[in-house]
Amino acid sequence: MFNWIGLLMPITYIGVLVGSLATFSSLYRKRKAAKAASLAPWFGPHVPRNVYLSLLHLEPAPGQKSPAVPDSVLRAALLRRATEDIHRVLAIRSAKGALGVLVQRGSVGDDLWQRFQRAEQEIEDELRDVVIEANAFSPGWGATIFQTANEIASNAIIRKRVDDIQAQAKSETEWWEKKRATIQSEFMKELNSEGSSEGPAPSPAPQKTPVAAPIATTTVQGGSDEDTVFVEGGGPAAAGAKGSAKKKKGKK
Amino acid sequence: MEDTFIQLPLQIDPTSKAISASTSYESKPLSAELAALNTLHRSLLNLDTPIPPPPLPVNPKRSAQIQKLRESGNASFRKGNYPEAIRMYTFGIEMAVGRPGWEPSALVRDEVSALYANRAQAHMAMQNWPQAMIDAESSVEMKRVGNTKGWWRKGRCLVEMGRLEEAMVWVGKALDVEEDAELKALAKEIEKAVKKNENV
């Protein structure tokens, strides 16, 4: 019986030890989890996904038959969601190698790597989810939806690039009109200083400035033969007398 | 994020089935997304099948039409009717770009590149250098390899506009991608012109 009192000390000791260790461990884990959760997500909000799920949960308006949203709209929304996923998968894949090297060298913090891995995990789940949803709409669509989404994504990129380039056309044309006007005036000054008695011989591009065209013809009629040749040679290209010989070659 | 999402206050128009956000929740990315969604939905409705078909095989109808537009453009070009040729090529480009998104993008690239290259040539024939340059650049952007004509045409346009520095850079880039006698000749010509300008 007296044994119990003697044992009380060590048992309390062990109890306190184990208890404090357990408390520390649980607190530490909780804090770590909170920290991980507070890390900023890799990507911004997934708008198409939110739209799709919101449409799925859209309540039918009072007095209307369900479902509120026709299947065709949902299919389109799912396709948009898959397209956005493709963008994300591409971003993840292209970032992975570089980020891996940076983390190995210690150039970037561990936080970034954790965020990245979480994003990778999320996108995997997301892809699986989309395939399941697609198969639910029509069996077998899950196999092709990402092919389709991939083409949609790259087609969008192509179109944007072409549009960007074509958008410059206006400013380029304006620039060229201005430059051509200055070249033409210089060209005419040169002609006048040479003292040609024919007067000004404007050399506009015929299809661009129809107003000036009649002047050119009258000049040609009134002027000498040499002048006629000159208008043809240097005129439309309007790059000055220096380049006229070269210009002719280029047009062929 | 796995099982959570943000519920958006969306509305559906009962007749047109167009989706819109309620006005209190308007934001730029959301309205852009909804516009894209509605466009996609309309193009999906034009299909015979409920889901978009896989990228291959391609519906041959549109390809044939584009081919035809290009050929009639080429015919007008040979006859010297450049504005008509440009019109035909422009139709062709619109048609190629207007392909539904799920059709193969490689095909779109090929078609658009060829049409822009041809349109550049027609613009060059009319000495409309800036537009020709833009078209040639578009063509090269769509197809970098195996597109000597596109590379050459933009170089030529730059020379014609007297932008020799840019032309030199451009042709240098072109020669990195392509080995071509005409491009080399153009490079030499530019060099000569630059020297001549320095002497003057």
From TrEMBL, chain A:
<feature type="compositionally biased region" description="Low complexity">
    <location>
        <begin position="209"/>
        <end position="220"/>
    </location>
</feature>
<protein>
    <recommendedName>
        <fullName>Translocation protein sec66</fullName>
    </recommendedName>
</protein>
<keyword id="KW-1133">Transmembrane helix</keyword>
<feature type="region of interest" description="Disordered">
    <location>
        <begin position="189"/>
        <end position="252"/>
    </location>
</feature>
<keyword id="KW-0472">Membrane</keyword>
<dbReference type="InterPro" id="IPR018624">
    <property type="entry name" value="Sec66"/>
</dbReference>
<dbReference type="GO" id="GO:0031204">
    <property type="term" value="P:post-translational protein targeting to membrane, translocation"/>
</dbReference>
<dbReference type="Pfam" id="PF09802">
    <property type="entry name" value="Sec66"/>
</dbReference>
<keyword id="KW-0812">Transmembrane</keyword>
<dbReference type="GO" id="GO:0031207">
    <property type="term" value="C:Sec62/Sec63 complex"/>
</dbReference>
<feature type="transmembrane region" description="Helical">
    <location>
        <begin position="6"/>
        <end position="28"/>
    </location>
</feature>
From TrEMBL, chain B:
<dbReference type="InterPro" id="IPR019734">
    <property type="entry name" value="TPR_rpt"/>
</dbReference>
<protein>
    <recommendedName>
        <fullName>Translocation protein sec72</fullName>
    </recommendedName>
</protein>
<dbReference type="GO" id="GO:0030544">
    <property type="term" value="F:Hsp70 protein binding"/>
</dbReference>
<dbReference type="GO" id="GO:0005829">
    <property type="term" value="C:cytosol"/>
</dbReference>
<dbReference type="InterPro" id="IPR011990">
    <property type="entry name" value="TPR-like_helical_dom_sf"/>
</dbReference>
<dbReference type="GO" id="GO:0006457">
    <property type="term" value="P:protein folding"/>
</dbReference>
<dbReference type="GO" id="GO:0005634">
    <property type="term" value="C:nucleus"/>
</dbReference>
<dbReference type="GO" id="GO:0051879">
    <property type="term" value="F:Hsp90 protein binding"/>
</dbReference>
